[in-house]
Amino acid sequence: MLSIPFFQRPYKWQTARCYQLELDILRLVEGEDDVHFVGAIIMHQLPSGPAELAVDEIIDGQQRLTTVYLYLCAAIHALALAGEAEEAAQLFRRYIVTNVPTGRRSNLRLQPSGEDQGDLNVVIRELTTMRQLEPALVGTHINLLPSDERKHGRVETNYKRAKRFYRLQSAEGGSDRIREIYTALLQQLSVVVIDVNDPTNGPKIFDSLNSRQEPMTIGDLVRNDVFLRVALEDPEQAIEIDREAWQPFYSAFKTDSKDYFDAYFFPFGLIHEPNLRKSEVYPTLKREWGRMSPVEVIDSLAVFQPDFLDLVIGGNRSEHAPSTVLRLDRLRRANLPASALPFLMQLSHAMRTGAVGVGPGDGILDVIDAFLTRRAICGFEPTGLHAVFKRLWLDCDNWYTPQRVAAEIKKHKTVSWPTDAEVSAAVLQRHLAGATIVPYLFQELDAVEGALPSPVMYVERVLPEKPDDAWTQFTDEEVANTRDLLANLVPLSESPSQRALREPYDEKRRRFAEEPAFGSTRSVAAEYARWDIEAVSSRARRLQELVLERWPDGMG
Prior knowledge:
The chain is 52% helix and 6% strand. The chain has helices at 15-29, 62-81, 85-96, 117-128, 154-187, 202-205, 218-228, 235-251, 265-272, 281-289, 294-301, 305-312, 322-333, 341-353, 358-378, 385-389, 392-395, 402-410, 420-429, 438-446, 476-482, 498-501, 505-513, 519-527, 533-550, and strands at 2-3, 36-45, 56-60, 110-111, 189-195, 458-461, 489-492. Strands 4-1-3-2-5 form a 5-stranded mixed sheet. The protein has a two-stranded antiparallel sheet with strand order 6-7. The chain starts with a strand and ends in a 6-residue tail after the last helix.
Protein backbone atom coordinates (compact mmCIF):
# COMPACT_ATOMS: atom_id res chain seq x y z
CA MET A 1 0.00 0.00 0.00
CA LEU A 2 1.20 3.50 -0.82
CA SER A 3 0.32 6.30 1.59
CA ILE A 4 0.90 9.98 0.92
CA PRO A 5 1.24 11.88 4.21
CA PHE A 6 -1.93 13.71 5.13
CA PHE A 7 -0.02 16.99 5.39
CA GLN A 8 1.49 16.76 1.88
CA ARG A 9 0.54 19.27 -0.82
CA PRO A 10 -2.33 18.18 -3.07
CA TYR A 11 -1.97 16.47 -6.42
CA LYS A 12 -1.05 19.11 -9.01
CA TRP A 13 -0.14 17.52 -12.35
CA GLN A 14 -1.22 19.80 -15.18
CA THR A 15 -2.50 18.83 -18.63
CA ALA A 16 0.92 19.15 -20.29
CA ARG A 17 2.43 16.55 -17.97
CA CYS A 18 -0.40 14.08 -18.58
CA TYR A 19 -0.05 14.60 -22.33
CA GLN A 20 3.67 13.86 -22.11
CA LEU A 21 2.98 10.68 -20.10
CA GLU A 22 0.51 9.56 -22.76
CA LEU A 23 3.12 10.11 -25.47
CA ASP A 24 5.67 8.14 -23.46
CA ILE A 25 3.20 5.26 -22.98
CA LEU A 26 2.37 5.17 -26.69
CA ARG A 27 6.07 5.00 -27.52
CA LEU A 28 6.26 1.90 -25.34
CA VAL A 29 3.16 0.39 -26.91
CA GLU A 30 4.44 1.02 -30.42
CA GLY A 31 7.82 -0.50 -29.56
CA GLU A 32 9.77 2.74 -30.03
CA ASP A 33 11.05 2.38 -26.46
CA ASP A 34 11.49 -0.70 -24.28
CA VAL A 35 11.31 1.13 -20.97
CA HIS A 36 10.53 4.64 -19.72
CA PHE A 37 12.31 6.01 -16.65
CA VAL A 38 10.04 8.24 -14.60
CA GLY A 39 12.50 9.23 -11.88
CA ALA A 40 13.10 8.48 -8.23
CA ILE A 41 10.49 7.63 -5.62
CA ILE A 42 11.44 8.40 -2.02
CA MET A 43 9.53 6.44 0.57
CA HIS A 44 9.55 5.45 4.21
CA GLN A 45 8.09 2.16 5.39
CA LEU A 46 5.73 2.62 8.33
CA PRO A 47 5.62 0.14 11.23
CA SER A 48 3.06 -2.63 10.71
CA GLY A 49 1.95 -5.83 12.40
CA PRO A 50 3.17 -9.24 11.18
CA ALA A 51 -0.21 -10.04 9.63
CA GLU A 52 -0.70 -6.60 8.11
CA LEU A 53 0.14 -5.33 4.63
CA ALA A 54 3.24 -3.15 4.61
CA VAL A 55 2.48 0.55 4.14
CA ASP A 56 5.04 2.73 2.37
CA GLU A 57 4.73 6.44 3.05
CA ILE A 58 5.59 8.45 -0.08
CA ILE A 59 7.92 11.30 0.79
CA ASP A 60 8.38 12.26 -2.84
CA GLY A 61 6.77 10.83 -5.96
CA GLN A 62 3.09 11.32 -5.21
CA GLN A 63 2.50 13.25 -8.44
CA ARG A 64 3.70 10.40 -10.67
CA LEU A 65 2.24 7.58 -8.57
CA THR A 66 -1.16 9.25 -8.35
CA THR A 67 -1.19 9.78 -12.11
CA VAL A 68 -0.39 6.11 -12.80
CA TYR A 69 -3.10 5.06 -10.34
CA LEU A 70 -5.66 7.29 -12.09
CA TYR A 71 -4.69 5.91 -15.51
CA LEU A 72 -5.15 2.37 -14.14
CA CYS A 73 -8.61 3.37 -12.86
CA ALA A 74 -9.40 4.75 -16.31
CA ALA A 75 -8.18 1.50 -17.91
CA ILE A 76 -10.60 -0.46 -15.72
CA HIS A 77 -13.40 1.92 -16.78
CA ALA A 78 -12.51 1.44 -20.47
CA LEU A 79 -12.35 -2.36 -20.17
CA ALA A 80 -15.76 -2.47 -18.52
CA LEU A 81 -17.26 -0.34 -21.30
CA ALA A 82 -15.65 -2.69 -23.85
CA GLY A 83 -17.40 -5.71 -22.33
CA GLU A 84 -14.35 -7.03 -20.46
CA ALA A 85 -15.89 -6.80 -16.98
CA GLU A 86 -14.10 -9.80 -15.48
CA GLU A 87 -10.68 -8.57 -16.57
CA ALA A 88 -11.55 -5.09 -15.28
CA ALA A 89 -12.62 -6.54 -11.91
CA GLN A 90 -9.38 -8.52 -11.64
CA LEU A 91 -7.34 -5.36 -12.21
CA PHE A 92 -9.47 -3.52 -9.66
CA ARG A 93 -8.95 -6.15 -6.96
CA ARG A 94 -5.22 -6.41 -7.64
CA TYR A 95 -4.17 -2.77 -8.10
CA ILE A 96 -6.92 -0.50 -6.77
CA VAL A 97 -7.86 -2.13 -3.44
CA THR A 98 -6.40 -4.74 -1.10
CA ASN A 99 -8.13 -7.28 1.10
CA VAL A 100 -5.09 -7.77 3.33
CA PRO A 101 -5.50 -6.01 6.74
CA THR A 102 -3.61 -2.72 6.90
CA GLY A 103 -4.69 -1.16 10.16
CA ARG A 104 -6.20 1.70 8.15
CA ARG A 105 -9.76 2.83 7.68
CA SER A 106 -9.56 2.54 3.89
CA ASN A 107 -8.30 -0.38 1.83
CA LEU A 108 -7.45 1.63 -1.31
CA ARG A 109 -3.91 0.81 -2.40
CA LEU A 110 -3.21 4.54 -2.86
CA GLN A 111 -4.01 6.76 0.12
CA PRO A 112 -3.66 10.39 -1.05
CA SER A 113 -3.12 13.52 1.01
CA GLY A 114 -6.06 15.06 2.84
CA GLU A 115 -7.11 17.48 0.11
CA ASP A 116 -7.40 14.75 -2.53
CA GLN A 117 -9.24 12.06 -0.59
CA GLY A 118 -12.77 13.20 -1.39
CA ASP A 119 -11.98 13.48 -5.11
CA LEU A 120 -10.41 10.02 -5.25
CA ASN A 121 -13.51 8.63 -3.51
CA VAL A 122 -15.54 10.07 -6.41
CA VAL A 123 -13.37 8.15 -8.90
CA ILE A 124 -13.70 4.85 -7.00
CA ARG A 125 -17.45 5.28 -6.57
CA GLU A 126 -17.86 5.83 -10.30
CA LEU A 127 -16.06 2.56 -11.03
CA THR A 128 -17.87 0.47 -8.43
CA THR A 129 -21.31 1.66 -9.50
CA MET A 130 -20.82 1.12 -13.24
CA ARG A 131 -23.64 -0.97 -14.63
CA GLN A 132 -21.10 -2.97 -16.66
CA LEU A 133 -18.68 -3.57 -13.75
CA GLU A 134 -20.73 -3.73 -10.56
CA PRO A 135 -21.84 -7.40 -10.95
CA ALA A 136 -18.24 -8.54 -11.42
CA LEU A 137 -17.21 -6.77 -8.20
CA VAL A 138 -19.77 -8.52 -6.00
CA GLY A 139 -17.99 -9.69 -2.85
CA THR A 140 -15.10 -7.28 -3.29
CA HIS A 141 -14.34 -5.51 -0.02
CA ILE A 142 -14.20 -1.72 -0.54
CA ASN A 143 -13.65 0.86 2.19
CA LEU A 144 -13.40 4.40 0.87
CA LEU A 145 -11.09 7.08 2.26
CA PRO A 146 -12.13 8.82 5.50
CA SER A 147 -12.44 12.32 4.05
CA ASP A 148 -15.39 12.87 1.70
CA GLU A 149 -14.91 16.59 1.10
CA ARG A 150 -14.92 17.05 -2.66
CA LYS A 151 -12.49 19.67 -4.02
CA HIS A 152 -13.04 19.21 -7.79
CA GLY A 153 -9.25 19.31 -8.18
CA ARG A 154 -6.68 17.74 -10.48
CA VAL A 155 -7.56 14.18 -9.38
CA GLU A 156 -10.97 14.40 -11.02
CA THR A 157 -9.71 16.47 -13.96
CA ASN A 158 -6.90 14.07 -14.86
CA TYR A 159 -9.07 10.98 -14.37
CA LYS A 160 -11.50 12.41 -16.92
CA ARG A 161 -8.58 13.12 -19.25
CA ALA A 162 -7.36 9.54 -18.84
CA LYS A 163 -10.82 8.21 -19.75
CA ARG A 164 -10.77 10.31 -22.93
CA PHE A 165 -7.31 8.95 -23.76
CA TYR A 166 -8.52 5.35 -23.46
CA ARG A 167 -11.68 6.13 -25.38
CA LEU A 168 -9.65 7.41 -28.34
CA GLN A 169 -7.22 4.51 -28.18
CA SER A 170 -10.02 1.96 -27.84
CA ALA A 171 -11.66 3.37 -30.96
CA GLU A 172 -8.49 2.46 -32.85
CA GLY A 173 -7.65 -0.92 -31.33
CA GLY A 174 -10.47 -2.08 -29.06
CA SER A 175 -9.78 -4.10 -25.91
CA ASP A 176 -6.36 -5.18 -27.12
CA ARG A 177 -5.22 -1.54 -27.29
CA ILE A 178 -6.44 -0.90 -23.73
CA ARG A 179 -4.61 -4.05 -22.60
CA GLU A 180 -1.37 -2.94 -24.26
CA ILE A 181 -1.55 0.44 -22.55
CA TYR A 182 -2.17 -0.81 -19.02
CA THR A 183 0.50 -3.48 -19.48
CA ALA A 184 2.98 -0.74 -20.40
CA LEU A 185 1.93 1.22 -17.32
CA LEU A 186 2.49 -1.76 -15.04
CA GLN A 187 5.56 -3.36 -16.60
CA GLN A 188 7.54 -0.82 -18.61
CA LEU A 189 7.68 2.26 -16.40
CA SER A 190 10.93 2.23 -14.45
CA VAL A 191 11.68 4.01 -11.18
CA VAL A 192 14.46 4.19 -8.63
CA VAL A 193 13.04 3.57 -5.16
CA ILE A 194 14.84 5.12 -2.20
CA ASP A 195 13.70 3.93 1.23
CA VAL A 196 14.75 6.43 3.89
CA ASN A 197 14.84 5.84 7.62
CA ASP A 198 14.11 9.49 8.44
CA PRO A 199 11.18 10.80 6.34
CA THR A 200 12.21 14.41 6.96
CA ASN A 201 15.24 13.85 4.69
CA GLY A 202 13.07 13.33 1.62
CA PRO A 203 12.61 16.97 0.57
CA LYS A 204 16.37 17.53 0.86
CA ILE A 205 17.23 15.09 -1.91
CA PHE A 206 14.25 15.01 -4.25
CA ASP A 207 15.23 18.01 -6.43
CA SER A 208 18.37 16.34 -7.78
CA LEU A 209 16.75 12.96 -8.45
CA ASN A 210 13.30 13.36 -9.98
CA SER A 211 12.34 13.52 -13.63
CA ARG A 212 9.71 16.17 -14.48
CA GLN A 213 8.79 16.68 -10.85
CA GLU A 214 6.42 19.35 -9.61
CA PRO A 215 8.62 22.05 -8.02
CA MET A 216 8.32 22.37 -4.26
CA THR A 217 7.29 25.88 -3.23
CA ILE A 218 7.81 27.78 0.01
CA GLY A 219 4.17 27.06 0.80
CA ASP A 220 4.74 23.32 0.37
CA LEU A 221 7.71 23.42 2.74
CA VAL A 222 5.72 25.39 5.29
CA ARG A 223 2.82 22.94 5.13
CA ASN A 224 5.19 19.98 5.54
CA ASP A 225 6.90 21.59 8.52
CA VAL A 226 3.61 22.34 10.26
CA PHE A 227 2.36 18.78 10.08
CA LEU A 228 5.66 16.99 10.57
CA ARG A 229 5.50 18.42 14.09
CA VAL A 230 2.63 16.09 14.88
CA ALA A 231 1.66 13.77 12.02
CA LEU A 232 4.26 11.06 12.62
CA GLU A 233 3.37 10.64 16.31
CA ASP A 234 -0.37 11.28 16.21
CA PRO A 235 -2.06 11.12 12.76
CA GLU A 236 -5.52 11.65 14.28
CA GLN A 237 -4.39 14.91 15.87
CA ALA A 238 -2.92 15.98 12.53
CA ILE A 239 -6.32 15.49 10.90
CA GLU A 240 -7.97 17.58 13.63
CA ILE A 241 -5.38 20.37 13.30
CA ASP A 242 -5.84 20.34 9.54
CA ARG A 243 -9.60 20.69 9.88
CA GLU A 244 -9.70 23.21 12.73
CA ALA A 245 -6.65 25.41 12.07
CA TRP A 246 -4.87 24.77 8.77
CA GLN A 247 -7.82 24.63 6.36
CA PRO A 248 -9.37 27.93 7.58
CA PHE A 249 -5.95 29.57 7.11
CA TYR A 250 -5.15 27.88 3.78
CA SER A 251 -8.55 28.15 2.09
CA ALA A 252 -8.74 31.92 2.68
CA PHE A 253 -6.04 32.39 0.01
CA LYS A 254 -8.20 30.84 -2.71
CA THR A 255 -10.58 32.66 -5.01
CA ASP A 256 -12.62 31.27 -7.88
CA SER A 257 -9.82 31.97 -10.34
CA LYS A 258 -6.56 32.12 -8.37
CA ASP A 259 -4.67 30.75 -5.38
CA TYR A 260 -2.52 33.30 -3.50
CA PHE A 261 -1.17 30.87 -0.90
CA ASP A 262 2.40 30.60 -2.24
CA ALA A 263 2.56 34.36 -2.96
CA TYR A 264 2.08 35.16 0.73
CA PHE A 265 5.31 33.86 2.20
CA PHE A 266 7.93 36.09 0.56
CA PRO A 267 6.38 39.40 1.70
CA PHE A 268 5.58 37.77 5.06
CA GLY A 269 9.22 36.74 5.39
CA LEU A 270 10.46 40.22 4.45
CA ILE A 271 8.43 41.66 7.33
CA HIS A 272 10.52 39.54 9.68
CA GLU A 273 13.87 40.10 7.91
CA PRO A 274 13.97 42.85 5.23
CA ASN A 275 17.13 41.57 3.53
CA LEU A 276 15.89 38.03 2.89
CA ARG A 277 16.24 36.37 -0.47
CA LYS A 278 13.36 34.20 -1.57
CA SER A 279 15.38 31.02 -1.03
CA GLU A 280 16.03 32.07 2.58
CA VAL A 281 12.40 32.58 3.61
CA TYR A 282 11.58 29.06 4.73
CA PRO A 283 14.81 28.43 6.71
CA THR A 284 14.38 31.79 8.44
CA LEU A 285 10.77 31.11 9.39
CA LYS A 286 11.67 27.60 10.55
CA ARG A 287 14.29 29.00 12.94
CA GLU A 288 11.76 31.46 14.35
CA TRP A 289 9.22 28.72 15.02
CA GLY A 290 11.62 26.76 17.18
CA ARG A 291 9.55 24.48 19.39
CA MET A 292 6.19 26.02 18.55
CA SER A 293 3.24 23.66 18.23
CA PRO A 294 1.54 23.36 14.82
CA VAL A 295 -1.33 25.60 15.95
CA GLU A 296 1.11 28.22 17.24
CA VAL A 297 2.93 28.18 13.89
CA ILE A 298 -0.35 28.61 11.99
CA ASP A 299 -1.36 31.46 14.33
CA SER A 300 1.98 33.20 13.73
CA LEU A 301 1.56 32.83 9.96
CA ALA A 302 -1.94 34.31 10.09
CA VAL A 303 -0.92 37.59 11.73
CA PHE A 304 -0.70 39.52 8.44
CA GLN A 305 -3.04 37.35 6.39
CA PRO A 306 -6.07 39.71 6.34
CA ASP A 307 -3.82 42.62 5.37
CA PHE A 308 -2.27 40.66 2.49
CA LEU A 309 -5.63 39.43 1.21
CA ASP A 310 -7.23 42.89 1.33
CA LEU A 311 -4.36 44.20 -0.81
CA VAL A 312 -4.25 41.43 -3.43
CA ILE A 313 -7.88 40.26 -3.59
CA GLY A 314 -9.87 43.17 -2.17
CA GLY A 315 -12.51 43.25 0.53
CA ASN A 316 -12.25 44.25 4.17
CA ARG A 317 -11.13 41.29 6.28
CA SER A 318 -9.18 43.79 8.39
CA GLU A 319 -12.35 45.71 9.32
CA HIS A 320 -10.88 49.07 8.33
CA ALA A 321 -12.75 52.35 8.13
CA PRO A 322 -14.46 52.93 4.74
CA SER A 323 -11.88 55.60 3.81
CA THR A 324 -9.06 53.08 4.31
CA VAL A 325 -10.86 50.35 2.38
CA LEU A 326 -11.18 52.76 -0.55
CA ARG A 327 -7.46 53.57 -0.50
CA LEU A 328 -6.34 49.96 -0.23
CA ASP A 329 -8.60 49.09 -3.13
CA ARG A 330 -7.03 51.87 -5.18
CA LEU A 331 -3.62 50.32 -4.76
CA ARG A 332 -4.95 46.89 -5.73
CA ARG A 333 -6.61 48.27 -8.87
CA ALA A 334 -3.43 50.14 -9.79
CA ASN A 335 -1.58 46.78 -10.03
CA LEU A 336 0.36 47.24 -6.83
CA PRO A 337 3.95 45.95 -7.25
CA ALA A 338 4.68 42.99 -4.99
CA SER A 339 7.72 44.81 -3.59
CA ALA A 340 5.40 47.24 -1.74
CA LEU A 341 3.47 44.48 0.04
CA PRO A 342 5.65 44.11 3.17
CA PHE A 343 5.36 47.82 4.02
CA LEU A 344 1.65 48.03 3.24
CA MET A 345 0.87 44.81 5.15
CA GLN A 346 2.55 46.30 8.22
CA LEU A 347 0.74 49.60 7.77
CA SER A 348 -2.63 47.86 7.44
CA HIS A 349 -1.90 45.76 10.53
CA ALA A 350 -0.89 48.85 12.52
CA MET A 351 -4.06 50.66 11.47
CA ARG A 352 -6.40 47.80 12.43
CA THR A 353 -4.69 47.36 15.79
CA GLY A 354 -4.73 51.10 16.52
CA ALA A 355 -0.96 51.62 16.45
CA VAL A 356 -1.43 54.06 13.52
CA GLY A 357 -4.52 56.25 13.32
CA VAL A 358 -6.91 56.36 10.39
CA GLY A 359 -5.96 59.93 9.42
CA PRO A 360 -2.17 59.42 9.22
CA GLY A 361 -2.62 55.95 7.76
CA ASP A 362 -4.90 57.16 4.98
CA GLY A 363 -2.44 59.95 4.26
CA ILE A 364 0.39 57.43 3.92
CA LEU A 365 -1.69 55.35 1.52
CA ASP A 366 -2.28 58.50 -0.56
CA VAL A 367 1.48 59.10 -0.66
CA ILE A 368 2.17 55.56 -1.87
CA ASP A 369 -0.62 55.85 -4.44
CA ALA A 370 0.80 59.12 -5.78
CA PHE A 371 4.37 57.79 -5.89
CA LEU A 372 3.48 54.57 -7.73
CA THR A 373 0.92 56.11 -10.09
CA ARG A 374 3.18 58.97 -11.14
CA ARG A 375 5.95 56.46 -11.88
CA ALA A 376 3.59 54.30 -13.92
CA ILE A 377 2.35 57.29 -15.95
CA CYS A 378 5.95 58.19 -16.78
CA GLY A 379 6.79 54.60 -17.68
CA PHE A 380 9.37 54.04 -14.95
CA GLU A 381 10.00 50.34 -14.39
CA PRO A 382 9.41 48.88 -10.92
CA THR A 383 13.09 47.94 -10.82
CA GLY A 384 14.59 49.28 -7.61
CA LEU A 385 11.31 49.57 -5.69
CA HIS A 386 12.31 46.60 -3.54
CA ALA A 387 15.16 48.72 -2.16
CA VAL A 388 12.66 51.48 -1.31
CA PHE A 389 10.03 49.38 0.39
CA LYS A 390 11.91 46.53 2.07
CA ARG A 391 13.14 48.77 4.94
CA LEU A 392 10.63 51.60 4.72
CA TRP A 393 8.76 50.51 7.84
CA LEU A 394 11.98 50.42 9.86
CA ASP A 395 13.34 53.60 8.25
CA CYS A 396 10.34 55.57 9.52
CA ASP A 397 11.49 54.66 13.04
CA ASN A 398 7.99 54.64 14.62
CA TRP A 399 7.16 58.03 13.09
CA TYR A 400 4.41 57.08 10.65
CA THR A 401 3.14 60.21 8.93
CA PRO A 402 2.64 61.01 5.24
CA GLN A 403 5.45 63.55 5.35
CA ARG A 404 7.93 61.12 6.91
CA VAL A 405 7.09 58.32 4.48
CA ALA A 406 7.45 60.65 1.48
CA ALA A 407 10.76 61.96 2.80
CA GLU A 408 12.15 58.45 3.30
CA ILE A 409 11.12 57.42 -0.22
CA LYS A 410 12.75 60.51 -1.72
CA LYS A 411 16.05 59.69 0.00
CA HIS A 412 16.53 56.93 -2.58
CA LYS A 413 18.19 58.97 -5.31
CA THR A 414 18.32 56.05 -7.76
CA VAL A 415 14.54 55.54 -7.62
CA SER A 416 12.82 58.51 -9.22
CA TRP A 417 9.78 60.28 -7.77
CA PRO A 418 8.54 62.00 -10.94
CA THR A 419 8.21 65.76 -10.86
CA ASP A 420 5.11 67.65 -12.02
CA ALA A 421 6.94 68.52 -15.23
CA GLU A 422 7.73 64.86 -15.95
CA VAL A 423 4.15 63.75 -15.24
CA SER A 424 2.75 66.56 -17.40
CA ALA A 425 5.03 65.63 -20.29
CA ALA A 426 3.98 61.97 -20.04
CA VAL A 427 0.27 62.84 -20.06
CA LEU A 428 0.74 65.12 -23.06
CA GLN A 429 3.23 63.11 -25.11
CA ARG A 430 3.74 59.53 -23.90
CA HIS A 431 2.09 56.71 -25.83
CA LEU A 432 0.02 55.14 -23.03
CA ALA A 433 -2.34 52.89 -25.02
CA GLY A 434 -1.97 49.40 -23.59
CA ALA A 435 -0.29 50.56 -20.37
CA THR A 436 -1.69 48.69 -17.37
CA ILE A 437 -2.13 51.92 -15.41
CA VAL A 438 -4.64 53.43 -17.88
CA PRO A 439 -7.84 51.70 -16.64
CA TYR A 440 -6.98 52.83 -13.09
CA LEU A 441 -6.40 56.42 -14.24
CA PHE A 442 -9.82 56.60 -15.85
CA GLN A 443 -11.52 54.90 -12.92
CA GLU A 444 -10.09 57.46 -10.51
CA LEU A 445 -10.66 60.50 -12.71
CA ASP A 446 -14.30 59.41 -13.07
CA ALA A 447 -14.84 58.26 -9.49
CA VAL A 448 -17.54 59.77 -7.32
CA GLU A 449 -16.01 60.76 -4.00
CA GLY A 450 -16.16 57.92 -1.48
CA ALA A 451 -17.53 55.30 -3.89
CA LEU A 452 -15.85 52.33 -5.51
CA PRO A 453 -15.61 53.00 -9.25
CA SER A 454 -17.07 50.99 -12.08
CA PRO A 455 -14.78 48.43 -13.74
CA VAL A 456 -13.19 49.41 -17.04
CA MET A 457 -14.03 46.67 -19.51
CA TYR A 458 -12.30 48.24 -22.49
CA VAL A 459 -10.14 51.27 -23.35
CA GLU A 460 -10.90 52.49 -26.86
CA ARG A 461 -8.90 54.74 -29.13
CA VAL A 462 -11.08 57.56 -30.46
CA LEU A 463 -8.85 57.93 -33.51
CA PRO A 464 -8.54 54.23 -34.51
CA GLU A 465 -5.24 52.43 -34.55
CA LYS A 466 -5.63 51.97 -38.30
CA PRO A 467 -7.96 54.77 -39.48
CA ASP A 468 -9.62 54.59 -42.88
CA ASP A 469 -10.70 57.36 -45.27
CA ALA A 470 -13.26 58.66 -42.76
CA TRP A 471 -10.37 60.14 -40.73
CA THR A 472 -8.75 62.44 -43.29
CA GLN A 473 -8.56 65.26 -40.69
CA PHE A 474 -5.34 63.58 -39.43
CA THR A 475 -2.17 63.38 -41.49
CA ASP A 476 -0.19 60.12 -41.41
CA GLU A 477 2.34 61.75 -39.06
CA GLU A 478 -0.41 62.98 -36.76
CA VAL A 479 -1.96 59.51 -36.67
CA ALA A 480 1.37 57.98 -35.60
CA ASN A 481 1.89 60.65 -32.93
CA THR A 482 -1.69 60.78 -31.65
CA ARG A 483 -3.47 57.42 -31.65
CA ASP A 484 -1.76 56.07 -28.52
CA LEU A 485 -1.87 59.23 -26.39
CA LEU A 486 -3.90 59.24 -23.18
CA ALA A 487 -6.02 62.06 -24.62
CA ASN A 488 -7.09 59.79 -27.50
CA LEU A 489 -8.33 57.06 -25.13
CA VAL A 490 -11.74 56.64 -23.50
CA PRO A 491 -12.95 54.05 -20.97
CA LEU A 492 -15.98 51.87 -21.69
CA SER A 493 -18.07 49.66 -19.47
CA GLU A 494 -18.61 47.16 -22.31
CA SER A 495 -16.33 45.90 -25.06
CA PRO A 496 -17.29 47.29 -28.49
CA SER A 497 -17.39 45.24 -31.68
CA GLN A 498 -14.46 45.33 -34.09
CA ARG A 499 -16.66 47.21 -36.55
CA ALA A 500 -17.43 49.86 -33.92
CA LEU A 501 -13.73 50.45 -33.31
CA ARG A 502 -13.30 51.57 -36.95
CA GLU A 503 -16.37 53.82 -37.09
CA PRO A 504 -16.13 57.49 -38.13
CA TYR A 505 -16.14 59.92 -35.22
CA ASP A 506 -19.78 60.96 -35.74
CA GLU A 507 -20.89 57.37 -35.05
CA LYS A 508 -18.47 56.92 -32.18
CA ARG A 509 -19.70 60.16 -30.68
CA ARG A 510 -23.27 58.88 -30.49
CA ARG A 511 -22.04 55.72 -28.80
CA PHE A 512 -19.85 57.66 -26.35
CA ALA A 513 -22.78 59.88 -25.40
CA GLU A 514 -24.67 56.79 -24.21
CA GLU A 515 -21.81 55.32 -22.14
CA PRO A 516 -23.53 54.46 -18.83
CA ALA A 517 -20.61 54.41 -16.37
CA PHE A 518 -17.89 56.86 -17.39
CA GLY A 519 -18.59 60.59 -17.43
CA SER A 520 -15.26 61.33 -19.09
CA THR A 521 -16.37 59.37 -22.15
CA ARG A 522 -19.71 61.18 -22.27
CA SER A 523 -17.78 64.46 -21.93
CA VAL A 524 -15.79 63.73 -25.07
CA ALA A 525 -19.06 63.40 -26.97
CA ALA A 526 -20.51 66.53 -25.39
CA GLU A 527 -17.47 68.80 -25.76
CA TYR A 528 -16.04 67.82 -29.14
CA ALA A 529 -18.23 67.95 -32.23
CA ARG A 530 -15.17 67.13 -34.30
CA TRP A 531 -12.20 64.92 -33.34
CA ASP A 532 -9.03 66.42 -34.76
CA ILE A 533 -5.57 67.38 -33.56
CA GLU A 534 -6.92 70.49 -31.79
CA ALA A 535 -9.50 68.41 -29.90
CA VAL A 536 -6.82 65.93 -28.80
CA SER A 537 -4.58 68.77 -27.60
CA SER A 538 -7.44 70.39 -25.71
CA ARG A 539 -8.35 67.15 -23.93
CA ALA A 540 -4.68 66.43 -23.18
CA ARG A 541 -4.32 69.74 -21.33
CA ARG A 542 -7.46 68.99 -19.29
CA LEU A 543 -6.23 65.51 -18.40
CA GLN A 544 -2.89 66.97 -17.38
CA GLU A 545 -4.61 69.24 -14.86
CA LEU A 546 -6.79 66.43 -13.49
CA VAL A 547 -3.88 64.00 -13.08
CA LEU A 548 -1.73 66.52 -11.18
CA GLU A 549 -4.68 67.39 -8.97
CA ARG A 550 -5.55 63.75 -8.23
CA TRP A 551 -1.94 62.54 -7.65
CA PRO A 552 -0.07 65.58 -6.32
CA ASP A 553 3.61 65.71 -5.59
CA GLY A 554 3.30 67.99 -2.58
CA MET A 555 4.64 65.75 0.20
CA GLY A 556 7.99 65.88 1.90
